[in-house]
Amino acid sequence: MLFSPTQLNTCGSSFVHKKYSCSGHSHTSSSLSTYLVLASSASRLYASFWQQSNHYSVSCSRHLSSSKNTLLDLALNRASETEAPSVSSYNRKPVTPDVKVDTRAFLKCRPEYAFLSLDLTQRPQPVEWVELLPRLQKVSVLRARMKPPDVLQFLLELSKLHPDKMPLLQSDQRFIMLLRYSVEHLRLFSELQLLEVLQSFVWLEIPSSHTMLEVYEAELSRRANQLTLHQLLLAADLWRCIGRQVPQFLQCLFESVHLYLGQVGVPELVQLLYIIGEGRHCPKDLICPIKQLLMRHLAQMHPEEVGTVCLGLFKAQTSLPAGAVTRIVDKALSVVTEMGDFAMVNVLKYLRFSYLFHRSWLEAMGREVPQRAHRMGVQGLMHVTLTCSALHYCNDSILSSIAERVPSLVPHCRSKDSSKLLWAFSTLGFLPAQSQSFYPSLTDALRQRKAEFQRYPEHLLTGLLGLAFVSQFPEDLVILALSPEFVHLALRNSKLELKKDLFTLDAAVTLELPQWKGPRLSGELREEVAEMLWKFAQSDVCLKPEVLEAESALQDLLGGDKFVCKRMIMPHTRSIDLEIHLDPEGQPIPVNVLCPKQNPTMVPSSQRWEKINSGVTITDNLVAQLIKGKNSTELPPTTIAASSDSVRQGIKDSVKIAVQISNRNHYCIQSQQLLGLHAMKRRHLKIAGYRVVELSHWEWSSMLRKSRAEKLAYLHCKIYDSL
């Protein structure tokens, strides 16, 4: 028995032996019907099971890619003889194991977890192959005469075999026969025996895809209402240790939890959230009870338990109210110095998912991460920077310590790690000059993982866009990304919309590499994406009050709507500008010919700003007081044109001006540092010959509450001071 007598006695009702009779009188008609369906299903599975014969091997099946990916590999390999670089022209290389992390460290926090989970560090004392041969021989002798206790005992003894010899056992026909009998006796096992069989499967390394396990899941699901809460959680954990997704059983578990809410203490709650996270799903009707239980038990949780709670909520994409998330992070902050790196990163993951800016926690990360970075693995560091990026939080101490650590971890980098690190750092404005090795090392890491782009084309685009933000364009990777083969692969990916990313990369290359002779996107695709982006802008940012008021005021300032064009000058940057042109004399030039047609019904009358006649009279004194904050001598009233004579005299050629109405999401939080995409846009506008005038959100939002004359004075100075 794998459960000690002490455990069984201590657990009490958690492990209750229940005898099952094979007599039809002991089952309801619905139960019998379920069993007949199960038996029919099992018979079909036996056939599939027996067909595996000697080819049944854990060691090989775990490393096989799916048939779909294999076919994709073959298809791409057939095209690899072309001269141009292709997705398939690089061999796969295994990723070196990253820094080892104990993802189940929370189980060591309390002795109660022994009844809710399997301690994977307590493997049975290994037994050599020769010692178990007599047991296998006995299996072949007993055959159909085996009873449920015999089957269980054989499985428990064989599960002690040394791990190195497991493939030998799994290919043995006598072992296959034993598994067959375990399924035939499935109905006769008690609940405790079922759990012990499932536990033996963990040590026997039964592959998670094995068809036999489908029958076991069905039987455990059928008996869910006969299992205690502890047994349900233990069974769910055993399935997790096997590595099999069991949505049917988990649904039964979740439905049963409502019956046991009064029995849920800290260990039960944490284990439940661990299971929810590993299953990637939390039923909506459980969210409220879980929140209430969390708030009740939060103060008693250990640091690693808080990390597990955050990871479970993150993996299941479960939103809690901001107040509840804040309390969880407050608790994490109070024990942050005692937290392991894995738990700390899990808190950051849930912050990222919740988009909660918790200043005190992030400031603590500014102290903790530099102290821990030297021992952390690449995946943990990637999640730290992703959280900073998602929250627009730029902390030089965090970024510098990670940038120093990452180059040594390149052998451990998956394409996902490399691409997201590049994206996060460049989004936060970390420039190549700040670390000589950071960007080159991750670019090389992308090259080493090129084969992974067959399955995850988005990783290449994410990495290259990150590099483009800081004006880095590795030619070989860009050629690959814009090649017809890769574009076809990326567009075929139905799960993600990659057209916009391809469009942004293509345009960035065109602007920043004028001598580019490599592949480009087709004109049709570029037009399609530009139109899609403009339609979205028309229904969203074009209608924002701050944009409508700036457009209206500029039209008044310059003398009419023909002098202001609201459009996407740089559509690949996915934002709009107000474009105006001035001649060498400083006079506005009509630009309405540039403006795309816009349906006037797109602008609700309730959001149109009242317009006044153009030619508003503004005094130099008013301009000085409003913009410079200084008192000046009263001068005779003049028109805007007259007050701008001195500026106009300084203009040598006509000028194109892009007026940008920024918002706080364009900047790192509580700073004036532009995020990566918006910094790239500024650069591209200048390359295209535009002068950029920004109506910053911290200035323009306050101007919206002022009079039209004050707004015009502000805009006048913004436009003409830029010259």
Automatic annotation (TrEMBL):
> Looking at the keywords, is Mitochondrion present?
yes
Please give the biological process terms from Gene Ontology that the record holds: mitochondrial RNA processing; regulation of mitochondrial mRNA stability
Q: Does the keyword Protein biosynthesis apply?
A: no
Provide an example Pfam family for this protein.
FAST_1
- Residues in domain RAP? 657-717
Top-level taxon in the UniProt lineage: Eukaryota
Q: Name one GO molecular function term.
A: RNA binding
Primary residence = mitochondrion
Give the subcellular location: Mitochondrion
* Record-given protein name: FAST kinase domains 5
> What are the alphabetically sorted keywords of the record?
Mitochondrion
- What GO cellular component is one of the record's annotations? mitochondrial matrix
